[in-house]
Amino acid sequence: MPANTIDIATIVGYFVVILFIGLRSSRGQQRDAATYFTSRGSLPWWAMGMAYVSTGLNSEQLIGMNGMGYFVGLPLVNSYLNAILVFTALIFCFFPVYLRNNIITMPQYLEERFDKRSANVFSVLLLISYVFLSLAVVLYGGAKLFEVIYEVPLWQSVLVLGLISGVFTIFGGMSSMVNASVFQFVLMFLGGGILFYLGYDQLPNGWQDIMDHAPGGFHLMQPADTPVMPWHAVLLSLFNLQLFYSCINQALVQRGFGGKTEWDVRMAIVFALVFALFRPFLEVFPGLMARALAFTGHTAFQLTEAEIDNVYPLLIANLIPAGLQGLIIVGILSTVMSTIAAFLNSISTLFTYDVYKKWINPAAGDRKLVSVGMWCTFVLMAFSILYAPVIGKLGGIFIYFQSLATYLAVPVATCFLAGMFWKRATPAAALVVLVAGIPLGAMIQLVAIPALFSPGFIAAHGLGNFYVTGGITQVFCVAIMVAVSLFTPPRQTAEIKRLMWTPAMISLPTSDPQRPWWQSVGLWWGIMAIVYGVLYWMWW
């Protein structure tokens, strides 16, 4: 069998397996809405951990981050090492509040903590962002692989990826995604590991070449005038984009709502902490490696910034021999399919519970809710297939996604932090921040900063950086939250007490089974905290 035929057979075989998993998982799932959307009470820690990792690792990361790795370098690894901070918040603060209040969607939390107005605004913002940002970006990234490697027209690849992801999400619900994620988790790390090894083997001096040719030097923290991720951008993004993505993002957080126990949910995130350390070797270091190859005689990797999204596909096309490319592409497709399915399921969950059941048909039963969710998934899939090719005309994947996502993350993260940790935060304040936050961010970045500062000052202090302007916007959002809260009535403490975080929530609930010391969440979290600290010390 010719090598190219083997590659095609491998890819087709993958699609067949994924469809089989989705259809098999659908048995008995479509009668109960909670089971269909969240697999309530049925998932072990390792399955949720794999699903969380594979959902977060997608084509926006593989293609976008590797492209930026080529031009920006090691500072991008901060996005993964920061996991020890935001995952800690998820383990000990956010998940305890969500799980003990039976939260299914993120807008539901805002409704119970503040009021319906905030929840409704957030629902609309989330639905728009998932369709135009997350879902379309992942579809475009997956299709970009086939365009660069096999010269398949972008729209054809988008169509195939969208249809197959939609089918197994529609019929399988959450169970199909978790079952598929275990399979996809293995594939993505296997494929990524092979690619990294083959590229590394081409470098004359190995790791030293990667360090020597890293843009800006091999350091995590870079000066304030560094493009994309200077030191203050790393710090400021922690409180909005990083926090939003890990602790408030419906697509990721929903992975934990099906856990058997709260211990399972927490251990799933500790598991994700372990594999977050390996993700840079799939998502950033291959881009650095391509840059090192360009400087050591491999002219195929000499790229311009206009070709930023071609870095990762070119690594596959030039390093992986025919016959093995299919396996590598399947590994990448596993990230694409997993994430597309997660977003489709999460968006349909949001629409079904926060739009249809709340505004259209409050009396809808389980079968009706599942039916609405399935039709919602179909419509979303169709729209995203049509919109995804447009992204190629809007700049690189990374900048498109990260910059627009920051606009949303700032007001949302501000509301969740205030709602969870400040009992005086009022419904009126949350509503004002959610409504005003996005236009305020745009005004600060596009109008206020250019009007107040010279181009030289802006460049020297990174004020044109979207992470930095996001942090500045958040300061104003916090000020608005405090000011409006002090002049408007809060809800009664008795009504919101259960939705506020307390130090007692650090401990597992008494309803959880007692476990031996070596299964302690705190023990394994502590070990990972030490590992992360050492890496920061080494690469600072």
TrEMBL record:
It comes from the Bacteria. Keywords: Membrane, Transmembrane, Transmembrane helix. InterPro entries: Na/Glc_symporter_sf, Na/solute_symporter. The chain crosses the membrane at residues 6-23, 43-59, 79-99, 120-142, 154-174, 181-200, 231-253, 265-282, 327-351, 372-391, 397-422, 429-453, 465-488, 521-539. Pfam families: SSF (PF00474). It is found in: Membrane. It is a multi-pass membrane protein. The keyword Membrane applies. Its main location: membrane. Gene3D superfamilies: Sodium/glucose cotransporter (1.20.1730.10). Belongs to the sodium:solute symporter (SSF) (TC 2.A.21) family. This is Sodium/sugar symporter. It comes from Ravibacter arvi.
